[in-house]
Amino acid sequence: MGAVDEGRWALRLAVGLLAGGVGLYALYKLTLDRHQEEQVGRACGGRQSGKQKLVHTVSGLKLAAANRGIADAQPGCVLTKSPDSLEQQHLQVVLGLLQGTSESSTREQTLVTLGNSAAFTTNQDLIRKLGGLNIVANCLSDEVTSVKVKAMNVLNNLSMSVANQEELKIWIPQILEIVQATTLNSELQVAGLRVLTNISVTNNYHHMVTNSIPHFLKLLVEGTESIKVQVLKILVNLSANPGVAHDLLCVQAPLSFLLLFDSCEHKDILLRLLIFVANLKESLNLLQGSVEYEMESIHSVLFGNPTPFSHKLATLMLYQDNEVKHQVARIIIK
Description:
It is built from 19 helices and no strands. It is mainly alpha-helical. It folds into 2 domains: 72-199, Leucine-rich Repeat Variant; 212-334, Leucine-rich Repeat Variant (Alpha Horseshoe), CATH 1.25.10.10. Helix 5 (88-100) runs antiparallel to helix 6 (104-117), helix 12 (187-199) runs parallel beside helix 14 and helix 16 (267-286) packs parallel to helix 19. The longest helix has 43 residues, at 2-44. It is elongated and about 65 Å long. The chain starts with a helix and ends with a helix.
């Protein structure tokens, strides 16, 4: 009888220990699951309550939509979103991040995101209304060149909006200063010229860049092909405005200016050069009064009588391209 009681007591003890072990494991598993939930919650912008987790498990829809708005507004999520899917709350987050950090790589990443989103007209307006133009333009004062380049790229897209140009005009002097002071043919110089090209599409701000015409001509003869093309886009825009024709005609021509009209020059450059000259010729006919020009001026080099430029035009009449011939005809006939 005693042996039987001892056996029953041992069995009860074993069952009790087993139950206790299961309980401890369940408690450990519960604690571990809760810890993992917290980790996931932090990564996605918030922690779900037990009730929320149950609803999410059952429906899989309603809670997911609610949480997506929270998670999508986190900087890490916003910066990886497709540019065409960025909404106002996302742009606010990106602009806040750009304004609130001095870390170069983060600033560059936010500027890339803004630049991509600013390719869409709706976002160009949204960024302006959110005060983003000044936030982006302030990056032009950053000490890191790559940040300046990316800020210029954003401004390039933003400046396609006429409404944005009105606010960006206060930054034209700084952009001109950067273009002149930076290394010749640098990425920053090209980016700055692109912004000025957009801003010079209308006549509204031509008076703000006329003092930089001599430097534009310097870049035209010294720069790479990409620099030449960007400078000529600006000069063509300026030359279409009779109001600044006098400024263009009076400026001193670089010594190697006429060499650009050689038939071996790249067509894109040659064609824009001829459009520039043809526009000036038309504006010259509109100018009233007698004006004396220096011998080294653009006017004297192009329209003096006789000039080496006349011989260049005669040669270009044989150029194997109808667009080039048409612009040569414009110059000769006018």
